[in-house]
Amino acid sequence: MDLVPALEEPLKKALGPATAKVMAEHLGLHTVGDLLHHYPRRYAERGELTALAELPLDEHVTVVAQVASARVLRFNGGSGQRLEVTITDGSGQLQLVFFGRGIHKPHKDLLPGTRAMFAGKVGVFNRKMQLAHPAYQLLRADSSEEAAEAVGSWAGALLPIYPATAKLESWKIAKAVDLVLPSAQDAVDPLPESLREGRGLVPLTEALLKIHRPHSKADIADARSRLKWDEAFVLQVALARRRFADTQLTAVARVPQPDGLLTAFDAKLPFTLTEGQQKVSKEIFDDLATEHPMHRLLQGEVGSGKTMVALRAMLTVVDAGGQAAMLAPTEVLAQQHHRSITEMMGELAEGGMLGGAEHSTKVVLLTGSMGTAARKQALLDIVTGEAGVVIGTHALIEDKVQFHDLGLVVVDEQHRFGVEQRDALRSKGKQPPHLLVMTATPIPRTVAMTVFGDLETSVLDQLPAGRSPIASHVVPAADKPHFLARAWERVREEVGKGHQAYVVCPRIGDDEDDKPKKGAKKKSAEDEAEKRPPLAVLDVADELAHGPLQGLRVEVLHGRMQPDDKDAVMRRFAAGETDVLVATTVIEVGVNVPNATAMVIMDADRFGVSQLHQLRGRVGRGSAPGLCLLVTEMPEASPARARLGAVASTLDGFELSRIDLEQRREGDVLGQAQSGVRSSLRMLAVIEDEEIIAEAREEATRVVAADPDLAGLPGLRTALDALLDEEREQYLDKG
Predict the structure, then answer these.
(1) What residues have CB less than 8 Å from 441, skipping those under 6 apart?
(2) Rg for the chain (alpha carbons), in Å?
(3) Residue 245 is inside which H or E element, if any?
(4) Model confidence over 10-37: pLDDT tens digits?
(5) CA-CA distance, 400 to 241, in Å (whole number)?
(6) Which of 49, 287, 450, 655 has a C-alpha 20 to 30 A away from that of 386?
(7) Within 13 Å and on the Cβ side, how many CA atoms surround 241?
């Protein structure tokens, strides 16, 4: 990798071992180049104060504010003391607390009227936001020497506020950046000159200086638009090169037979496919009929009938003489798919058996917990080609599993699989098999272009007929306890009508769960009171069975149960022998019990937006309307409550995924999708920068078509090498 040596210099050399260690461990920064690309999150103006009312809970923040008051309080009969400092931004207030011996210095420094930068994690105590033991840097320095230093650190009028951690405050990062900033002049520009000039973007070296040490807001704007283009363009070039490489591969075209298995299957369907299902099926059939491997992402709402579309694609491949494999993330889900697919196919799934139809095949399940005999038989059916349709978990990826002629791989719930696993299954084909990736977490178009930019996308946005609407409500258990009592009454009412209900909890509650994590710090009594552990399945099930749901048949389901026990619980629930299933998120994907109409999600604020949407999709799957109650103890004004309100207000998964992303910054999304490699996006906001992403994709496709090896663009090659360090390069190559 011929990156510019100045930017490759380890931070250990530039900043000393202690600071470099913290930067590597807590911020993932290892070289001078990494630090130069660690951009300020925002800028505070010297005289300006931070809006304290809008601070996010549980996040590490840096604020600029003024001390309003400070007082020392005694507790524990006078043996303990704490300093409470109230800071203000003119409109709101925030409390700072310091305990024990740690109060002397802040008591001397933080006099009313003093301005400072404060850094710490936002917590809640007694329903008020606070920072406990924040680090601080005075802005109105007392001695002339300090004054010179404070002013010297931020020569401009704008103070950069960096993404920081408890171990390394923003102002310390700013000092480190000052030390390495001269190296910015050695940065190699990845953008082709014609593109940069055509779009009026400043050179990279200028952008780096302006982003870290701006003299005006115009400097920041210039730098941001330039750096966003870099990120979008380099990532899109990586994806465009992959798409280009895929067009060079050959695959076996799989063309459906006119009167084969698919025709027989369609003839026995008791309903007609939705327009969306027909349109998406056609896109897939067209791809399968070509001699290049299909790479398609099928996204659709929970319950939009993706499995039906995938099954028809699998049957097409079987008709054409090949085999199709479906990879599911959990055993529960693999068993469920196997059950529902064999039920849908009926005698068509009984190939080679008595009573099997003329056009039929075997549908085989392969999971890690199968008995030896069943496993041997499954492996035999797969290698001889008897089994046209194979459904399994990671067990399908093992070396022992050999296919006769693998033509199509369907991956369910993409976000649960590392790319390595997808790739291992694809390598089992004699030629690259076609690939269909399914997800029920709707992904906004821009994210799909950024994360799955190498996949063509199909969207199912209609719900099949016979699906019922789901009403969702937030239940504020702390503010209005009678709402929670009413929630349990609603569950009883649903059961009284002959329906069933789910209660979902964030934790299992067995000993494993409750062991303190290694290296976990002991919390103060105040932390403990405020931050109780999340509610657990075993505790809640017990309370409900002896309390509000006494007399109902309550069972539990969680990930640490034996596979057979899990399957037995699911079967009893599906058969209507259980009224209420208290579970962890193991029920999040693919569990299909049309008679379940109500779901109560405990501590709903501990789940992500898309997870709540997924969970909610487990009810309302039959003809009776669904009800989802989101129980939370979070105060009304908190961001967590706003998130739950958004989930309750819309059933549109695409809309929710946009809200989710706007709230969470997309590092998580990319981090997950890119096999856990840290996100390369530091400046680009996938939702806001829709236009840049679309334009960068066009430019990248044009550049790669003209020069696939980028021989004429050494700067771009270098940037690509930096983005695709080895792990990523493998990731992108595997796809």
Answers:
(1) 299, 415, 610, 613, 614, 653, 657
(2) 29
(3) helix 217-247
(4) 888 888 898 999 999 888 888 898 899 8
(5) 33
(6) 287
(7) 17
